Amino acid sequence: MSSANDGGEDARPSRGFGERLKTEPPYRAMRRPTLTFLGGVHEIGGNKILVEDGPDRVLFDFGPSFSPRWEEYYVNFLQPRSTSPAKDLLEFGLVPRIEGLYSREALGDADLAWKPPEVHAIFISHAHADHAGHLNLVDPSIPVYVGEGTRELLRAIDSSTAMKYGDHDWRTFADRAPIRVGRIEVVPFPVDHSVPFAYGFLIRTSEGTIVYTGDFRHHGPRASDSHEFFRAAESEHPAGLLIEGTRAGPDTRRNLTENGVRSEVDRLLGRHPGLALACTYPRDVDRLTTLHAAAQAAGRKLVVSARTAYLLASIAGKWTSGKLPLPGTPDGVEVYQRKKKRYWEYEKPYLDTGLSATEVRSHGERYLLALDLSHFPELIDLRPPRGTPFIHSMSEPFSEDDVDDKVMHNWLDHFGLEFHQMHASGHASEGELFEIIRSIRPRRVYPIHTEHPEAFRAIGPSAHPPELGVPYPVTPGSPTPRD
Ligand SMILES: [Zn+2]
After folding, report:
1. In angstroms, what is the span from residue 395 Cα to ligand 1's centroid?
2. In which residue ranges of the chain is pLDDT below 70?
3. Fewer CB atoms inside 10 Å of the end CB: C or N, the chain?
4. 63 CA to middle of ligand 1, Å?
5. Angle, alpha carbons 303-148-395 (nearest 5°)
6. DSSP secondary-structure letter at 452?
7. What pairing do the DSSP bridges indicate for beta strands 143-147 and 121-123?
8. What structural domains does the chain harbor?
9. What are phi and psi of 155, to 5 degrees?
10. Pairing between strand 240-244 and 208-212?
11. Which 8-state DSSP code applies to residue 470?
12. What is the pLDDT of residue 345?
């Protein structure tokens, strides 16, 4: 499932849908407000949360589960048919069986027949694949709400990668401006995460407020946004808190702050006068900005792929977190020009000014080159001197038998590159999560987007690791006492 991994940080396998989900009674039978987890349960990613209040049904995020069950049926050479992707996923219970959600085209002649939409809106928290990657299955008449910046990001991803979101009734929301869908009111709050324009939501139902964090951190450049969201969440006295727990449980991986990454890159560039290489997540604009600033301070240029340049240019109009290093500007990024038989439309604006492998090889000291892993064959032309530093500015692998990681190291070993791990996660640590829960004091805490929901038992009786496909009532009442 290569496209689904595209940009979804920290996506790793876990349990997928249980067969039981297929036999659940129709969700719409529930009258009082409920929330049902259709993904993101005992897994990192795959968030799909259905909130129902009377006749109104709103879905929060709709991303594929990176589940081992998926890989039991679909692997890189064997994928759902583009003529009936929903049918092919429903066959194995890899997407939830919900009526009035999927498009006629995606269903084909699946045994779940097409029905006019019975889901009234979908809110997408951010542009990572594990939250937005199944939008292509959805009926095009269901309104899809995204932040204004996310809309631009999705547009750029759609036109420059294999990821396709499909046609939708797109609606953009403004920061903290409430949107009403029947009885349900949604207030989107910007949060700090490793992709820009990420949101958490206050979801007000007729029986109380649910807080959905999306994915977040508060050690990046938009930490104050996350804090403002938590303060607003606290003053709602929420009935439920749906909190991501990517880093809950055992986590031995080294984590820096964004500023910490900057200092380590500064030091490294100070020690190595020649070419330096780096690798980041393609949508981690904060990291690109950090690397660009470090390169500039060392008298170098950050060189990125045409795809990254296109993405930066696409979001420029919505970017408000400082100066974006744009291609084609005097103090912006340079573009690396790969040799290709055919160039995509989005690559064409950069063809005349792109830097060749020869230029980068002969003047390595001028550049910090950010390569995607898929662009590693360029190393064969670049011939970096042995000992050239390679900054791995992404998550460490989740398992020791991670194939991509092994292949990457084979390439690094072959060229004698010096590996440096320097990363700031897009997610809060377990301690930070517990602190947030203690300050918000929700009646119930539903840990999602985590492989270790049980770790949240440590916060006390408010912890409710959810089960897949079970409708939970939104129960009003006094918040948990402060301890
Ligand atoms: Zn996620």
Report:
1. 13
2. 1-30, 398, 477-483
3. C
4. 9
5. 45
6. -
7. parallel
8. 3-250+427-473 (3.60.15.10), 258-421 (3.40.50.10710)
9. -60, -45
10. parallel
11. P
12. 95
